[in-house]
Amino acid sequence: MAPVLHIVDAPGSYRSSKAIAAGLFCALNVQRSDALLTSDLSPLGGSALVYPYMRINGEIVVGDNACARFLASSARNALVPPAPMGQQAAARMAEIDAVIDASASMLAPPALAMHDNMLSGAFDAAMCARCRDALLVNLKATDEGLKTKTFLCGDAITLADVVVCVDVFPAFAHAFTEADRKRVPNVTRWFTTVVNHPHFAKVLGGAPKTPKALAALPTRKLQEAAAPAKADKAAAKKPAGEKKGGGGAEQKKKGGGGAEQKKKGGGADAKKAGGSNQPSSGGGVDIPKTVEQFGEWFSQVCTKGELIEYYDVSGCYILRPWSYTIWEHIKDFFDAEIKKLGVQNCYFPMFVTKDVLEKEKDHVEGFAPEVAWVTKSGESDLEVPLAIRPTSETVMYPVFAKWIRSHRDLPLKLNQWCNVVRWEFKHPTPFIRTREFLWQEGHTAHANKKSADDEVITILKLYARIYEELLACPVIQGVKSEKEKFAGGLYTTTVEAFIPTTGKGVQGGTSHNLGQNFAKMFNIEFESEEKGASKGQKNLVWQNSWGLTTRTIGVMIMVHGDDNGLVVPPRVAPHQIVIVTIPNSKMSKEELDAMDAAAEKLSGDLEAPGAEPANPFNAIRSKTDLRSNYTPGWKYNYWEMRGVPIRCEIGPKDMANKACVFVRRDTREKTFCSWSEAKATATALLAKMQAEMLERARKQTQEQCCTVTKWEDFVPALDNRCMVLTPWHESVEVEELVKTKSSAESDGGAAKTLCIPFNQPPLPAGTPCFVSGKPATKWALWGRSY
């Protein structure tokens, strides 16, 4: 275990948080002390002490930034470039130092003055407002620089992010209202990303709530959350992510929390067990699901719902078991379906040489900005740089040319489940836009176009089934415009999902007909069997590729999540039912054991396969939570935050009646039944919940899809968070015109074609394009998108 390093700070100060956070990144055990060592020293040689400071090996390091710098440079880590520094590393270190120095002079003083005044007991609103306004002005340059970056210096968290995050933390925690945050949206996004990193969460407690107005603060100390010893002790008693009075509590609403059992099935048992109508700990989001705070809400749901953990490399996230299990359910469904079509699974390497990647010009141009390259092995430069696959066409097709010789080798249908890397420069968002993601990619070769066309649609319909039957998310099927199609392909079909809260579309999955373009590039030919064909005549194959990613999970979260956390559709839920017992202090050990045994027995009954193998809820995935160190109310919140579809409650009165209570996560609807009826009741409830979640989401999507025939109505519809169906003269030039005009006329962002829907309304001859006035050729669906 690393030795303990002490940092001494003034009571009420938060500035030592920089050193404590830096220590965590460096695997150093830094603990705070409030001791006033009046006889110890004066770091400046006078009588006054200067805080914070550290005494290390007989020397004294003074100041918050100096302490953080000392710790970062004392261990080999990613916060600063390691010594000895080459020219590039020295330039990066200079960049980090410049950011830290700018923050010390422009950000820290107003933030510190404002925070000290709020805690002083003599709150001066005017002074604090001046400090807040100065901060917002000084953050403008930083906001501009973060438009194309995730972190302040480079692609990962550095010491600059540590220092600036702590400098501006008081402003975000106590001063920056929703309107203020809109003035610096990129800084807000950066702050949310950094402060939710596990090391910062341990020091600062995660992303703070958005304050409604400037106000005096109770004299609490921010640094209390920054003491590792206290945090570790508390963690032993509470799960990670717990907050006092955790949100997500169903008990906030009348009739919620399973504690309202004055009706049949529980009575006073729940109240005695702590499951009252008041919020209990156990997790929960404290940011509402609104368009203004959607990004922060989404981040909290992903972390507190135990879907992801943030990682040190920008745009990369750790998929925790809860989210990976959801992905496995998607994978199991799709894998079984494509095997019915004769598709076989395989695996190809992730590396591709530069010359092979660049063989298809249009294809590589489409992916060039996103390609990550391996150029070194240890300290030696590679003779030939290797690209990490952004997709596998150029990896697989040279081998297709070896394997395909005759019509008897066709169709060739392969699929691989793997990861790919696309070095996105846009703002990373868990599941939705990441630099590394999991997916399946299918690659097939056919003897003729009809065979390829048929498969494209078959796969697209399977993608639609995943979204609608498994994830309860409606999608619109269509074909991409020429501008938006897969680079190098003949045409691209797509399923487009929609997020009602933000009014943005999400490309949910694509199935491409690649034509014969790649076959020409890689000489994938076969001997024809067509009548009249000369012996040995060679034909080019027709090829398809199709892919679905972990973006599916992001869509599910955004569509169904609520102010209390995640809501997982039953078909993909890791646990479809969680059973919570409600003991009370009057129960004997024998009665408690009997209650636990009844819960385990009920769980086994739910899991046992029924008489309908085709029913997706024939065998229910059940979990029994018998942890005795948590109250029922805490457990309700814990599982609600994670979106378990149904909670089952068993209290003393339920034991006497051999009954239980089922509570739906999405509607809080309660159903009372006997143990003997539990399996049939639960099966029906899960099926009903699955169907109703899809129907609600479909209704929301339909309500936010409008038809527009004139340009003057187009941007207002977008600003009203709608997808827009318009008559369109299909051309790249007109699409670029829409992008330019919509961006110029609104701060909401540019519009793009989401797809040309398969379901086309009638288009009378002569109907003008909504923007160019030329004769319209199609109805196109437009929107803003992730």
UniProtKB/TrEMBL annotation:
Q: Supply the CDD domains for this chain.
A: ProRS_core_arch_euk
- Regions of biased composition (Basic and acidic residues) lie at 230-253
One biological process term in Gene Ontology: prolyl-tRNA aminoacylation
EC number(s) in its UniProt entry?
Answer: 6.1.1.15
Q: Where are the transmembrane segments?
A: none
Q: Where is this region: Disordered?
A: 226-286
Q: Which UniProt keywords apply?
A: Aminoacyl-tRNA synthetase, ATP-binding, Ligase, Nucleotide-binding, Protein biosynthesis
Q: What class of enzyme is it?
A: ligase
**What is one cellular component GO term in this UniProt entry?**
aminoacyl-tRNA synthetase multienzyme complex
Location of the GST C-terminal domain: 89-212
GO terms of molecular function: ATP binding; proline-tRNA ligase activity
Enumerate the catalysed reactions.
tRNA(Pro) + L-proline + ATP = L-prolyl-tRNA(Pro) + AMP + diphosphate
Domain Aminoacyl-transfer RNA synthetases class-II family profile: start-end pairs: 326-569
Q: Which SMART domains match?
A: ProRS-C_1 (SM00946)
Which SUPFAM superfamilies does this entry report, sorted A to Z?
Answer: C-terminal domain of ProRS, Class II aaRS ABD-related, Class II aaRS and biotin synthetases, GST C-terminal domain-like
Cleavable signal peptide = none
Superkingdom per UniProt:
Eukaryota
Instruction: Enumerate the PROSITE patterns for this protein.
Output: AA_TRNA_LIGASE_II, GST_CTER
Q: What is this protein called?
A: proline--tRNA ligase
The organism encoding this protein is Pycnococcus provasolii
